[in-house]
Structure formats: structure tokens, C-alpha cells
TrEMBL record:
Pfam families registered for this protein in UniProt: LRR_1 (PF00560), LRR_14 (PF23598)
GO cellular component: membrane
Subcellular location: Membrane
InterPro entries listed in its UniProt record: Leu-rich_rpt, Leu-rich_rpt_typical-subtyp, LRR_dom_sf, LRR_R13L4/SHOC2-like, RLP29
Name under which the protein is recorded: Disease resistance R13L4/SHOC-2-like LRR domain-containing protein
UniProt superkingdom: Eukaryota
Membrane topology: Single-pass membrane protein
PROSITE patterns noted in UniProt: LRR
Any GO BP annotation: response to other organism
Length: 278
């Protein structure tokens, strides 16, 4: 089996990987989702120098991510979601400069997001939701100009939204829901013309809702609920023709509901409860 390039063992009852797997020198795709591996990521994997895809989702892994992960220089897709991984994200993970997809969601990872994440210039999906990550959102993420999906929701991130996220011109999905992010929405977000989903709900954002959010041409889902926004609902929200969901609940919004919302012909869900509207 030395010529094997793809091995998919998803949904079995495998507890231990045989050491012989390290002899599969041509293996490029190893997919083992939903197996009860439990222990650390098997060390034999580090010998697979041609590996491009490593999927160990829902494998009950319950230790830290080994720093040796940085040896897999050919990796394009690394999916370790839905485990019980502990500790920080190792900085060596940012040596994987071919990565296009990094999914570490639903673990128990702690500490800051490594600032060296800017090394991952090919990254299209960075999904870290459902951990206990803290610190601020690194400015360096703004250099990942190939990002399409950025999901940092359900963590404990603090500080403002970095203004240079406006450099992510390919971004379609931005989710920061349920953190402790404060400050206002930076003006540079108006540059994200491809954005369809913007979820900033359940944070400590304040100030007025910027009118430019209504001018993002592809916006479909806009979540700003459970923050400290005040002032009027901007009239320009009525120009967001593709909007299907507008969630502004639980803020300090005042004034009347703008009639321009009547022009949102695709709107299916409108939530304005728990404000000071009249």
C-alpha cells in the first residue's frame, strides 16, 4: 500500500492508529472523522510529508495540539473540530504556509490567537468558534487577503475590531458573535463588498450603527443584537436590497422605525425588540 494517496476511515471504532501508517509516504489525504481515538494526535502522522488533508473531527482527542503539527508543511486542509483539545494554539501551526482551511472549532483552546497567523497567506477559511480564546483580535489577520470565512464566535476575545479587517476584500462571512469586543464598528468595514453575513451580536460594541452597512451590496444576514448601540436606525439600511435578516434586538436604539425598511423586499426576519424605539 505504499502508493496509497487517500485513506478515509470515517465513522468507525478505531481507538489507535497503527504505527505503520507513517510508512505511507505518498499519502496526501487522511480522513478519520468520528472515531474514538481519545488520546493525543497519533505521532506517526508527522512522517507523512506529502499530507495535504488531515481531518480528525469528532475523535474525542483530549490533549493539546502538538507543536510537531508544524512539520506537515504540505497541509492544505486541517480540521480538528469537535474534540476536547486543550491549551493554546501552537505557534508552529503558522508554519503551514500552504493551509487554505483551518478548522479548530468546538474545543477548549485557550490563550490568544497567534500573531504569526499572518504567515498563512493562502488561508481561505479560519474557523475558531466555540473555544475559550482570549486577548484581542490580532491586527495581522488583516493581512490574510484570501480569507473568505472568518469565524471567531463564542470565545472571550476583547478589544476593538481591527480596522484593517477592511483589507479582506474577498471576505464573505464574518462572525464575531458572543465575545467581549468593544468600541465602534470601524469605517473600513465598508470595503467588504462581498460580505453576505456579518454577525457582531452579543458583544460590547457601542456608538451609532453606521449607515454604510446598508450600502454593502451583497449583505444578506446582519446581526447587531445584544450590544450597546444607540441613536437612530440608519435610513440607508433600507438600501440593502438583498437583506433577509436584520437583528437589532437588545440595544439602546431610539427614535422611530424608519419607513425605508419597507423597501427591503427580501426581508424575512426583522427583530427590533428590547430597544427604546417609539
Amino acid at each position: 500500500m505504499q502508493n496509497l494517496v487517500t485513506l478515509n476511515l470515517t465513522r468507525n471504532l478505531i481507538v489507535h492508529l497503527p504505527s505503520a501508517i507513517g510508512l505511507l509516504s505518498n499519502l496526501t489525504h487522511l480522513i478519520m472523522n468520528s472515531n474514538p481515538l481519545r488520546s493525543i494526535i497519533p505521532p506517526h502522522i508527522w512522517n507523512l510529508k506529502k499530507l495535504r488533508t488531515l481531518h480528525l473531527r469528532n475523535c474525542q482527542l483530549n490533549s493539546s495540539i502538538p507543536p510537531y503539527i508544524g512539520k506537515l508543511k504540505s497541509l492544505v486542509n486541517l480540521h480538528l473540530s469537535s474534540n476536547m483539545l486543550l491549551g493554546p494554539i501552537p505557534s508552529s501551526i503558522t508554519n503551514l504556509t500552504n493551509l487554505q482551511s483551518l478548522l479548530l472549532s468546538f474545543n477548549m483552546l485557550v490563550g490568544p490567537i497567534p500573531s504569526s497567523v499572518n504567515n498563512l497567506t493562502n488561508l481561505a477559511s479560519l474557523v475558531l468558534y466555540g473555544n475559550q480564546l482570549n486577548g484581542s483580535i490580532p491586527q495581522e489577520i488583516g493581512r490574510l487577503t484570501n480569507l473568505i470565512t472568518l469565524d471567531l464566535s463564542f470565545n472571550m476575545l476583547v478589544g476593538p475590531i481591527p480596522s484593517n479587517l477592511g483589507n479582506l476584500s474577498s471576505l464573505v462571512y464574518l462572525d464575531l458573535y458572543t465575545n467581549k469586543i468593544n468600541g465602534s464598528i470601524p469605517l473600513e468595514i465598508r470595503n467588504l463588498k462581498r460580505l453576505t453575513n456579518l454577525d457582531l451580536g452579543a458583544n460590547d460594541l457601542s456608538g451609532q450603527i453606521p449607515s454604510f452597512l446598508g450600502l454593502l451590496p451583497n449583505m444578506s444576514l446582519l446581526w447587531l443584537d445584544s450590544n450597546l448601540f444607540e441613536g437612530f436606525i440608519p435610513l440607508d439600511i433600507g438600501k440593502s436590497k438583498n437583506l433577509t435578516l436584520l437583528f437589532l434586538s437588545d440595544n439602546k436604539l431610539t427614535g422611530s422605525i424608519p419607513s425605508s425598511l419597507c423597501y427591503l423586499t427580501n426581508l424575512l426576519w426583522l427583530f427590533l425588540d428590547r430597544n427604546l424605539l417609539h
